[in-house]
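This entry is set out below.
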Amino acid sequence: MDERHRLSERLPDTFPLHIVSDADGSVICGVAPSRGASESELQAAEKVLNRHYPFELRELLAFTNGWPDAGAGLDILGTKGVGIRPGIPGYPSTYPETTWGLARESLEVMFDEAQNMLTEQLEIDDCIPVTASPVTGDFHFIVSEAPGRDISGRVYAFEQGTLEPVGSVSDLIVQIIDTVKNL
């Protein structure tokens, strides 16, 4: 029994298990995306962030309020756990609520190491984590909207110590799907 199956038995509402068969009939177990965030959940998270979600990220969260193991080793982060940090550096104390905290911790490391790679000077709070890898610490973030900011709404990947532009939230989702299809 894999970890996802154990989680679905312990927390069926948080980690629903769905059964998928591939072309040869083999059964694949996976975690389904969480239900979409309500308007009140979105507003509460925005209040904690002291920022509005960019439009595309808001739309994604309204569709799925987080998706553990969405593919390519990444969790798509939801509104749960926004502002919560892990108790032990590098290890969230609960899952998935503090996966956001792990992403935020990785974002702080990135700001120390690679912030000069961005085309505009940003504050760390201008960046909102979108995905996180609990295994590698890699993550994606989106730049919050602000008047006169050229890179508002753009998604960046911080993977293996390098910062790369991804494009939009839609581009990120397509990238995750393509990675999964090529596994």
Remarks:
- The beta strands are 17-21, 27-31, 67-71, 74-76, 127-132, 139-143, 155-159, 162-167.
- Helices lie at 3-10, 39-49, 55-63, 99-114, 169-181.
- Residues 85 and 101 are 4 Å apart (CA to CA).
